[in-house]
Amino acid sequence: QLQLVESGGGLVQPGGSLRLSCATSGFTLDYYAIGWFRQAPGKEREGVSCISSSGISTNYADSVKGRFTISRDNAKNMVYLQMNSLKPEDTAVYYCAVSWGQGRSCSLTEGEYGNRGRGTQVTVSS
């Protein structure tokens, strides 16, 4: 059964860090790009970061460049999002999604992505 399951969210103070994990199963992770998206209350879902199948190519939204780092461990079927220097505006539900059509590179265009997990809540507040 194909699954993507996010974890690692929580409540953190501004300036703090969190590491999100995306556990995948039911497909061969090695072949596909993975993206992280987020959706805040009352806002549209936006692409945060993505990583190519090999991990060589990555992409970040301007709002998180220099603060977030995406990585993957294909042997463990895991993708990670390290989030540092968190800001209140980072508060959202974060999702990981698989791109069936992207491998060697990735874009943050939501239409390029298919199956996704249920999300994990990240709240940045003092």
Highlighted features:
about 130 residues, mainly beta, six-stranded mixed beta sheet, four-stranded antiparallel beta sheet, about 0% helix, globular
Question: What is shown here, in short?
Answer:
By secondary structure, the protein is an all-beta fold.
Detail the topology: elements first, then pairings.
Layout lengths: L2 E5 L2 E3 L5 E8 L7 E7 L6 E6 L6 E3 L7 E6 L4 E6 L8 E8 L20 E5 L2
Parallel strand pairs: 2-10
Antiparallel strand pairs: 1-3, 3-8, 4-5, 4-9, 5-6, 7-8, 9-10
Strand order of the largest sheet: 2-10-9-4-5-6
The mean pLDDT is 96
The major pleated sheet works out as: 6 strands, mixed
**Number of DSSP helical runs:** 0
Write the H/E string, N to C: EEEEEEEEEE
User: What gap, in angstroms, lies between the N and C termini?
Assistant: 40 Å
Catalogue the unreliable spans.
none
Description:
With 126 residues, the chain is mostly beta strands. The chain contains no helices and 10 strands. It has strands at residues 3-7, 10-12, 18-25, 33-39, 46-51, 58-60, 68-73, 78-83, 92-99, 120-124. The strands form 2 sheets. A 6-stranded mixed beta sheet has the order 2-10-9-4-5-6, with no helix packed on it. The chain has a 4-stranded antiparallel beta sheet with strand order 1-3-8-7, with no helix packed on it. The radius of gyration is 13 Å and the shape is globular.
